[in-house]
Structures are given as structure tokens and as C-alpha cells.
Amino acid sequence: LITQYRPLFALNGVELEFEGEALEAIAEQAIKAATGARGLRGILERLLLELMYEAPTADYERVTITRGMVERGEAPQIVKKRGAKQQ
User: Fold this and answer.
1) Would you give the DSSP letter of residue 76?
2) 86 pLDDT exceeds 60?
């Protein structure tokens, strides 16, 4: 699934990364919910949906999904393109 989302972000010039701990947390959530591959897709969609809508107009160079984002809803780590206005 990760290999499907990376090219979608790349279309907008954004590199999508996942911390190893974030991938573990995603797998743990899917196992806990006993949802299998569909559960994994649902978790990833929940995490990435807003970012996918922002990507075409945002000045993101790289977005890193973290364990804190998966478990606690924290913001992802975002690196903006050089020369982009910082928020």
C-alpha cells in the first residue's frame, strides 16, 4: 500500500516517508481491529487524506508519517521546499 501512495504524492513533487515505528503502529492498529489488508488501507486513508488534498497547492518537499501521528493524531513532519513561506 505504501508503494501505491508514494507515487500519488510524487505527482505533486512531495516525497512521502514513513518512520519504521509509524509502520509498526499502523500494523498494530490493523491487528487490534482484526481487519486485515482492508483495515490497513482504511488506516492509511485516514492518515493521508487531508495531506493528499493539501499536496497540490502546498509547498511540501517531504512529508514524514510518525508514530505520534498514527497513535495520537499529531501533525506529520513536513519539510517545505526552499523559498516557501513557513507557517
Assistant:
1) P
2) no
